[in-house]
Amino acid sequence: MQEVRLRRAEVEIEGATRMKVEERLKRVIAREGAAHLTLIDPAKQAPRVAAQIASDVASAGSDGIMVGGSTRAGGSLLDRTVVEIKKAIKLPVILFPASEAGVSRHADAIFFMSMLNSRDPYFITGAQKRGAPLVKQFKLETLPMAYLLVEPGQAVGRVGKADLLPRAKPELAAAYALTAQYLGMRFVYLEAGSGAPIPVPTNMVRAVRKATQATLIVGGGIKTPRAAVERVKAGADVIVTGTIVERAKDSVAKIREIVKAIKLGRGA
Ligand code: 1GP
Questions:
Q1: Listed residue (167, 21, 22, 179) closest to 108, CA to CA
Q2: Which of 1, 56, 81, 155 has the most beta carbons within 10 angstroms of its beta carbon?
Q3: Does residue 258 belong to any structural domain of this protein?
Q4: Would 260 be classed as within a structural domain?
């Protein structure tokens, strides 16, 4: 009897670890009101340090790790970073590629993303076309995502040649998000750019939420629980932070505060 029960538990655990990343994220959002993802750029620290950061933010309640974000984040450094992070934590590791070089076989999933408001087709379908065969070969779970750059856009806005969404034009963001939904994308990411002095405006988040059913991700310049919770209240499903863990000494405490605020924040 005892043995049967044990075996059933093992099967359940195995089933849970096999759960798709998209399903896992959706369950967190449904259960806790919002999810938090931490962005780690492999170009900014050694793989072991990245793994330590991942383990710290996991203990602070972050729901997953995004790996990527800069054009230098590829090749063996990317692979080693993903491997070390996977060894350190059980949370899903999702690729966040800046180009076709950002694909690693060791990740759990990839944001298969298109910068819809780029002026350069390379960032809309070009890099995707180059990376897609590898994504298939590595059997990566794909999370189709519209990546929309909002003013000020920072480095990624410049590199991606984005026609930045003006902060005063929430209806334009909503139109892009609807376009994404009609194209079959299930995720929309409103991005102010890493290190942005101001995050995406809340009325823009609200307009996009109203227009679509997509899982709505918001990031760039979110440094405080208040900034995070305001965006969750406006309709964000996922809050992304990156710079905090690179800069702040008390980054774990900061992440913990942000996570706590957004998990309690929706509808409060
Ligand atoms: C960048 O939105 C993310 O893609 C994170 O931004 O580094 O400003 O937290 P920060």
A1: 21
A2: 81
A3: no
A4: no
**Can you give the pTM of this predicted structure?**
0.92
Torsion of CA 30, 258, 22, 234, to 10 degrees: 60
Residue 262 within a domain: no
For ligand 1, the distance from its centroid to the CA atom of residue 105, given in whole angstroms, is 24
Number of compact structural domains in the chain: 1
Q: For ligand 1, is residue 180 a contact (CB within 6 Å)?
A: no
Q: Residue 265's pLDDT is what?
A: 64
pLDDT in tens, 208-217: 999 999 999 9
For residue 70 and ligand 1, the question of a CB distance below 6 A is answered with no
Q: What residue owns the CA closest to ligand 1's atom 1?
A: 194
* CATH number, residue 93: 3.20.20.390
Task: Transcribe the chain into DSSP letters.
Answer: -HHHHHHHHHHHHHHHHHS-HHHHHHHHHHHHS-EEEEEE-GGGS-HHHHHHHHHHHHHTT--EEEEE-STT--HHHHHHHHHHHHHH--S-EEEE-SSGGG--TTSSEEEEEE-TTBSSHIIIIIHHHHHHHHHHHTTPEEEEEEEEEBTT-HHHHHHTTB-PBPTT-HHHHHHHHHHHHHTT--EEEEE--TT-SS---HHHHHHHHHH--SEEEEESS--SHHHHHHHHHTT-SEEEE-HHHHH-TTHHHHHHHHHHHHHHHTT-
- The residue segments making up the domain with residue 108 are 2-253
* Ligand 1 centroid from CA 20, angstroms: 24
Largest CA distance in the chain: 64
Residue 259 lies in a domain: no
